[in-house]
């Protein structure tokens, strides 16, 4: 089965799941309305009789079952979305290897700066939010949680890579994994913002930091976020380079960005004014001392 056919099938299944979610929600709303009316009658009569207690117990049991059923459908839908995104990424990588490009991923030499920045912004916005089950801890690469020590980034994954610049200085850049050699423990990566011979780098594992694969939800998993004043590497806005920064304000809502203070000697206190950076592009800094 071709990737296009599989994606079409998954989209059809996703559409059906969305319809089921709507049907489940409509059915549960009737029960929630009954709960509200029962509470109103109890307030009017100013008493809690055994009849009302029994009735509410039954209504709340049904409401809990309805919520769990809707949650199950939504999780199934999220799995379908993840599968579709994975197939699209596989197709993009295959086309790139074959030298075939699409409008959404043109070759770097033909890509205007603004287009690249827009693509990076879209990547940050579409990063999935981790939604765990009750009591489930966020996994590695969710928000600030680092990858496990034996983790190997896959082909096509975006990473922060420490490379030598033209002037000899080292810098952290946004790169895409091309391959990993298990015998040498080295990555082959492409600079996301370069074309030609200067684009590809061979780097050891210690020079690679995988980017988050899920956003952490501040409302349910605040421990999976960097905390205020923590030293990080953050992608400077409108660039493809990571620089040292302090967390000024962590996200308060799932859709919020970090507010960070970049190290900048042109300011009296050594830091820039607060700038927003998406969770996708904030990783732990391996160097603790300020330069």
Automatic annotation (TrEMBL):
CDD domains: Tudor_SGF29_rpt1 (cd20393), Tudor_SGF29_rpt2 (cd20394). Residues 7-38 form a coiled coil. Its main location: nucleus. GO terms for cellular component: ATAC complex; nucleus; SAGA complex. The keyword Transcription regulation applies. Residues 149-291 form the SGF29 C-terminal domain. The keyword Coiled coil applies. One of its GO terms (biological process) is regulation of cell division. Pfam families: SGF29_Tudor. It is found in: Nucleus. This is SAGA-associated factor 29.
């Amino acid at each position: 089965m071709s990737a296009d056919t599989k994606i079409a099938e998954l989209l059809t299944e996703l559409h059906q799941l969305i319809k089921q979610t709507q049907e489940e929600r409509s059915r549960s709303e009737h029960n929630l309305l009954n709960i509200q009316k029962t509470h109103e009658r109890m307030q009017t009569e100013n008493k809690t009789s055994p009849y009302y207690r029994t009735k509410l117990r039954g209504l709340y049991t049904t409401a809990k079952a309805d919520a769990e059923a809707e949650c199950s459908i939504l999780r199934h839908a999220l799995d379908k979305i993840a599968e579709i995104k994975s197939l699209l990424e596989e197709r993009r990588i295959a086309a790139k290897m074959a030298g075939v490009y699409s409008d959404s991923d043109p070759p770097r030499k033909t890509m205007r700066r603004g287009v690249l920045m827009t693509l990076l912004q879209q990547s940050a916005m579409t990063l999935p939010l981790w939604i765990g089950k009750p009591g489930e801890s966020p996994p590695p690469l969710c928000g600030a949680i680092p990858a496990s020590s034996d983790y190997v980034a896959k082909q096509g994954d975006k990473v922060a890579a420490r490379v030598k610049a033209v002037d000899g200085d080292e810098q952290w850049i946004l790169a895409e994994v091309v391959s990993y050699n298990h015998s040498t423990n080295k990555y082959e990566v492409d600079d996301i913002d370069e074309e030609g011979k200067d684009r590809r780098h061979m780097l050891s594992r210690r020079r690679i930091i995988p980017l988050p694969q899920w956003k952490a939800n501040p409302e349910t998993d605040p421990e999976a976020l960097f905390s205020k004043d923590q030293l990080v590497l953050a992608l400077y806005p409108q660039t493809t380079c990571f620089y040292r920064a302090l967390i000024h304000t962590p996200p308060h809502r799932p859709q919020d960005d970090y507010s960070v203070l970049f190290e900048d000697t042109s300011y009296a206190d050594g830091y820039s004014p607060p700038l927003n950076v998406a969770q996708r592009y904030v990783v732990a800094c391996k160097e603790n001392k300020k330069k």
